[in-house]
Design a protein that fits this description.
The protein is mainly beta. 10% of the residues lie in helices and 44% in strands. Bound molecules: copper (II) ion.
Length: 167
C-alpha cells in the first residue's frame, strides 16, 4: 500500500502538467534554431533535445549545441526547464580506476574555439523533477548566459540524438 501511494501522486502530477509541454503550434524539431542578437552577444542554439524519462524515474538529460558569432565571447551560467524542479550542468569524468562518473560542473565558456556542445557522454543538462515526458513532445526551457542573458530553447523529446535514426 505504501509504495502504491508513493507512485500515485506522481501520476496525477504528470497528467495535470503534461499539456503545458505540448504546445498546439506546429511540432518543432531539433532543427529549430534560436538566435539572440544583442550588443554583447550573438548566440545560436540548435539541436536541442531531451531524452524521454526512463520508466519510473524523474531524472532525465537534455542536450544542445550553442554557437557564437565570430568575435564574441559568452558564458553559460545556468539552465531552466519549464516544469522541472531544477536543472544542473553536468559533465562526465573518468575516475582513477577507469569508471565513468558524472558530476555538476560550473559555468561553461563559449569563445572562438568552437561551439559549446552538450551531447551524450559529455556535458549535459541534468533535469530533476520534471513530470515524465515521452517521445514526440516538446519542452520549453531557458539557457542563461552572462552576455546574451536568457535564451529561450525548445527541446524535442526523442531517444536518439539528432541526425541518427533508430534503425
Ligand atoms: Cu548528469
Amino acid at each position: 500500500m505504501r509504495s502504491y501511494l508513493a507512485i500515485f501522486p506522481a501520476l496525477i502530477l504528470a497528467a495535470c502538467e503534461a499539456p503545458e509541454n505540448r504546445p498546439s503550434a506546429p511540432p518543432p524539431g531539433v532543427e529549430d534554431t534560436v538566435s539572440v542578437a544583442g550588443q554583447e552577444s550573438v548566440i545560436e542554439i540548435r539541436a536541442a533535445w531531451m531524452r524521454p524519462h526512463p520508466a519510473g524515474r524523474d531524472v532525465t538529460a537534455a542536450y544542445f549545441t550553442a554557437n557564437l558569432a565570430e568575435g564574441f565571447e559568452d558564458v553559460l551560467l545556468s539552465a531552466r526547464i519549464d516544469g522541472a524542479e531544477r536543472v544542473e550542468l553536468h559533465g562526465h569524468f573518468m575516475t582513477g580506476d577507469g569508471v565513468m562518473q558524472m558530476r555538476e560542473v560550473g559555468p561553461q565558456r563559449i569563445g572562438e574555439d568552437g561551439p559549446l556542445i552538450f551531447a551524450p557522454g559529455g556535458l549535459h543538462l541534468m533535469v530533476f523533477g520534471l513530470p515524465a515526458v515521452s517521445e514526440g513532445e516538446t519542452v520549453n526551457g531557458t539557457l542563461t548566459f552572462q552576455n546574451a542573458d536568457a535564451v529561450p530553447v525548445r527541446f524535442a523529446v526523442q531517444s536518439m540524438p539528432p541526425g541518427l535514426s533508430a534503425d
